[in-house]
Amino acid sequence: MKQGRDESLKLFMDRFNRTARQVRNADQRLVVSALTTALRPGPFCDYLHAEEPQSMDELQNKLASFIRIEEGRAHQRGREEGEPVHRPARVRAGPQSGGNDRRGGYRNKDHNQMKQYIHHTPLNAPRARVLEEALRVDLVLQVVQIPTPRGADESKYCRYHQNRGHTTEDCHTLKDKLESLVQAGHLQKFVHRGRVSSRAERPSTRQESRKRTRPRIDRSRSRSADRTVRGVINTISGGFAGGGSTSAARKRHLRNLHSAHRTDTSKRSMPTITFSDDDFHAPDLEQDDPMVITAMIVRYRVGKVLIDQGSSANILYWKTFKQMDISEDAILPFNEQIVGFAGERVDTKGYVDLRTSLGADKDAKEMKVRFLLVEADTSYNVLLGRPCLNMFGAIVSTLHLTLKYPADNGKIATVRADQKMARECYAVGLKVKPRITNFPGSRSEVAMMELDPRTQFDDRVEPLGDTRPFVIGQQEDQCTTLGRNLTTDQATLIEALLLKNKDLFAWQAADMPGIHPDIISHKLSLFRDARPVAQRKRRLGNEKRRAVEEEVAKLLEDGFIREVKYTTWLSNVVMVRKPNRKWRMCTDFTNLNKACPKDTYPLPSIDGLVDGVSGYEILSFLDAYSGYNQIPMYQPDWDKTAFIAERSNYCYEVMSFSLKNAGATYQRLMDKVFQHQIGRCMEVYVDDMVVRSRSVEEHLRDLAEVLDQVRKFGMWLNPLKCTFGVSAGKLLGFMLTSRGIEANPDKCRAILDMRSPSSLKEVQWLVGRLTSLSRFIPKLADRIQPILKLMKKQKQVEWDNRCEAAFEEVKHILTNPPVMRRPDYGCDLHLFLAVGEEAVSAALVQEVPEFRPIYFISRVLKEPETRYQQLIKIVLALVIATRRLRPYLQGNQVIVRTDYPISKILHKPDLAGRMIGWSIELSEFGLRYEPRGSVKGQHLADFVAELPGRPSHCCSWVFNNQAEYEALIAGLELARDLGVKVLCCKTDSQLVAGHMNGIFQIKDDQLLKYFHKAKQLLAYFDSIEVNHIPRCENQRVDRLSKLSTGKEKGQLASLVRQIVFKPTVECLQVYSTAERDDWRREIVLLIQQQEAGATLQSEELKQVARYIMVGEELYRRGYVTPMLKCISKDESDYVMRELHEGICGRHGGGRSLRARALRAGFYWPTLEKDC
Description:
single chain; alpha+beta; HIV Type 1 Reverse Transcriptase, Chain A, domain 1; nucleotidyltransferase activity; RNA-DNA hybrid ribonuclease activity; DNA/RNA_pol_sf; hydrolase
């Protein structure tokens, strides 16, 4: 198409846009190239040839400017010639929109009509939400539904037109309709007020002429002037530099440089940039500091930006990106790694284009910079490499710590580095610990664990009990398995049912057509910008190569793969040794899986599955024949699963278990096939199926119903792995019987036969095995606390007697582990709590209709949690139990059995901190609290001792009479420090009062020491009485004593308490002797002389007036500061060391050190000189 001779730019662009919308997946370069070809020569065409727009938004803005210029010139030309100017009238949005095209067939009117507005007001909410509000208040009428046109994109849905083909957010009709409502004054609460909008309704002719008389303002300057700071945020090879991320692109980039036919390119010109002595600005000129600046990124002031001229990529660290108000949907995929100096490779999270300016100046030059997102431990926020510096034309001088680049106004912009910040980042960077990556021994094992959810269980499904084979095929070896415990009549009924459905069993892959694609197929759904990766062929040994050939031949015969040519995605195969010494062929879909989004389809809860199968009389275990391979691949994705074989390349036509979301797809199929049976008569975990019933008659009905569903959806079963009519079996690591849930005897035997660990690896094995059995061991974390402490040591393991005793205790429990039961819903559940010094535990039981333990849990306390008060630990144990046992507690009345007032604490109106959150969280369950009472069951006996006593601190000296003397002495010392001269002591101890008054004789040597200590203190008082009073008159002091004993230190701010660990009479008394040259002695003597009535000289009076004695300590009076304690020379040295280099020291300067010493409340005469 071409622009007509008399066709205006606006009319041509409307026609061009309608045509361009019909081209799918058209990128920006294709649109610009087609537009430059179609335009007739003119200013807009010259602009496209001279300066290619960086984005479609910039192209639209430029286009609007040129349209306004063209219309303005046409208006002025028509006014000069006296001719009216005809403009296309702006059509107002009416209530009806859409409809059928009269020319036959349906077209999406939204994609064919002309846009009424070039710019639209930014909104602060999605247009779908704004539309709902407009429909609710009758600002917009709902249009008649328009049928979806042929060939439309079925994945996109428009709420306004109620059809498919485009999204609500991209609907042009809705955009214009909402714009007309906004301009009319409606929907103002949805208008984005973050910054002044660049869109405004076209002004009148008078306004246009007025604007024409003004000088034109540069667009970049005007944008920077309106730019507001949104926030403040306080560090290579790879990326897009060097030709690209692929090896072929880099080679092509190098060949272009060495090509003999390379023509001379146009020279780049830029103004001269020089550095002079005036550019030296760093406080320390003798430096080799890094270039660290501040930059503006999407209106965020980002500090700690490292300028690295040796980096081929601009890096935005993930921690910085998370602080920006940017949606993760803006991240585009980037599947390559970046390479460090020593060859280390770092994964990237994608890339993002952000508008960036160097420096914090609002008028600085702003450009769109491409950043790679990297998650790393570093002291920097952003790293700017060569691509950004070259884009700005920036020149860096590390000698001057200055960066210069040409600005838009023709001047040279200067950005100075922050030397202080650079050194701080450098020092912190040296302390950053490297990220430790645990490399597995086998790459295929990691792929199996991450991609297949079944591999985390060694024994997923295994029937127990005596079984016998039952032939259901035409040959004798074509048989399945039946339980031997069935009676003859029961076995006959089950055999008849299996023979009736024997066509559902597959004996080879050729018998299995698979699931129909209309039911389900596995779709890869690659990221939109994912780049295909073709791996290089890996060399295999002769044995592995033969195994690959055999496996490929088998897959070809089964119809699972086909040969493929000219594929863009290509993967290698990995051979893994099976337990039977055979080889399993896996495909290394690492690159393909990275390009696929995660399917978050929920897998069933393990506890729910185990509880759902336990307690039933008869079970049948089913297994699908090559389960994953029964699901077909989405046909357009066949070629993407291509892999390299020895002589050709092949691709999968069925789903391979190595694909990323294979487990989620299979679980989705199982939920669809057995949607009416799951939870009622069977349980399913991926491809493990268990049918459970309470009687054989019920089991026959359930099994027939399940087999009918298998037939309906075209599934096939593996008869060799199916077992019917057994009474017990292993599922997901648990042994399930009619009694309940029992510990796996194989796991118990492995621990019982295990010798005492001698290395850290063996300790980790032991803890891992015990964790898998934690449901059956009460207070596990508390019991194995000595063993857990060994895991924190990096040196050689020292297995001591405490570890051995804990190990033996756990072994004793596992010799006869408890049988857990699933709860009987409708009956009350009882929760018991236990708190230790370093762990908390809980036990969930049900006592009616019979006693049955349900679950044991335990958790090691974190280091701050060990310092909680015991009552808070009890509440913490309750919170942990409710979080872990939430499925059991919902729908049942839960009774917390404890003798501590948890209910009163949680319902206090003055709760604060974490207790408020816990109280709100626990209110969901409607808990009821009752006293503990008697405890049933031997495994609950450990929960009787709910709160272990505190370790005693050698309290054997505390006797009643000694405690009375300690209280008397403490009171006398307090009264002495307060300067009391007349004192009356009242005590309810008749013995102490008798001793002090000389009535009773002292016969105990220890009490005699207390008596002499008290007599010494009596000398400080002018008058003192010690009287005996009855205890009934001493209740206030008695209550205070009990309150002090029951509360932790610091819990009551008004309560002063002192804990004495040794008798006062046995404590050494330390007397301080003043130094001979202590400057304080002279002043103390002058104060004592003044108090004695001596006459002092005027100079001495002035000196004394600055000081005061408080008790036996000398203080200096302050004018604007509180009193300062006077200290000696040795004490001042200690204070300066602590303030400068102690645990709270900051290594500050002398002025800062003096200020900190004064603020700490200390003074000595040489303070100014010493600091």
